[in-house]
Amino acid sequence: MQNRTHYIGRFAPSPSGPLHQGSLVAAMASYLDAKAHHGQWLVRIEDVDEGRSVPGAGEAMLALLRTLRMDWDGDVVWQSQRKLLYQEAAGKLGAHVYPCGCNRREIADSRLGTAPDGSAIYPGTCRHGLAPGKTMRSLRVRVPDMRVPDAAGCTASPATTANTDLITFTDRAAGRVAQHLATESGDFVLKRADGFWAYQLAVVVDDAQQGVTDIVRGADLIDSTPRQIYLQQLLGVPTPRYLHVPVVRNADGEKLSKQTGALAVAPDSEAQALGALQAAAAFLQLPLAPPGSISAFWQAAIPAWAKRFT
Ligand code: GLU
């Protein structure tokens, strides 16, 4: 097992509903990785999208983590209380940020296609100023243009801090990941039309401010990672290590979520809690003999994780 002297991990659920088996897998993976590295494990409630946050859901998630004996370090951070930090960070990005007056339909009509995460790629309409008659709806960050080789084979670099739109990183599970921001994301939203700060900005600001060294989360977020690394570069903060674990899907192949009707993990007894923990461990392919108690479960799960992932 690799013994890192400095490890800070985190679990960062969005409280849009109760914790389900899919979010338990993400919680368990980040918890076990932190424990296997003798590191700290933080919990951050990502209620930045206040329109989708369900009152009481964050508190219920914390109560469930306590029941499952997943004790976090330090105080829980709530994104809804950190808007000033996000505003400050957006201010630091200066000329990289611009107001955009386009609505969803106008962006979809440009038919540049969709980013890997399903969002429409922005055609850059407001890059050089709001078009006449348009008012600001959102704030976007400019990504570097694709570098085009000239006749001599040299690449012309656009006038941005980061001089290439290609972001690469090494995921501990997936290996090398590469994404061209210009063609696979486009200029992306930092502040949304509904006035809330976007997840992409909030997550980068919080991970940096909390000193997070290691991010372990579901593979549905691997396509967001290059945008987050780009923001880290612009803000001059370190890039953590990443490990994206498989996401739990239902019989129709959809990621478990409130929208796809995922059932809440709501154990009434220690036996039920153990059942949920064992199911999550089995999903993560951790070979464990049936443990007799929750503490015995963790005692066995930590070395099993260390063998498999560190
Ligand atoms: N809040 C995000 C979610 O629940 C996770 C963010 C992250 O781990 O970076 O999907």
TrEMBL record:
Keywords: Aminoacyl-tRNA synthetase, ATP-binding, Ligase, Metal-binding, Nucleotide-binding, Protein biosynthesis, Zinc. The gene is gluQ. Pfam families: tRNA-synt_1c (PF00749). This is Glutamyl-Q tRNA(Asp) synthetase. Its EC number is 6.1.1.-. One of its GO terms (molecular function) is ligase activity. Residues 10-266 form the Glutamyl/glutaminyl-tRNA synthetase class Ib catalytic domain. ATP binds at residue 258. It comes from Massilia frigida. A motif ('HIGH' region) lies at residues 13-23. Belongs to the class-I aminoacyl-tRNA synthetase family. GluQ subfamily. Its cofactor is Zn(2+).
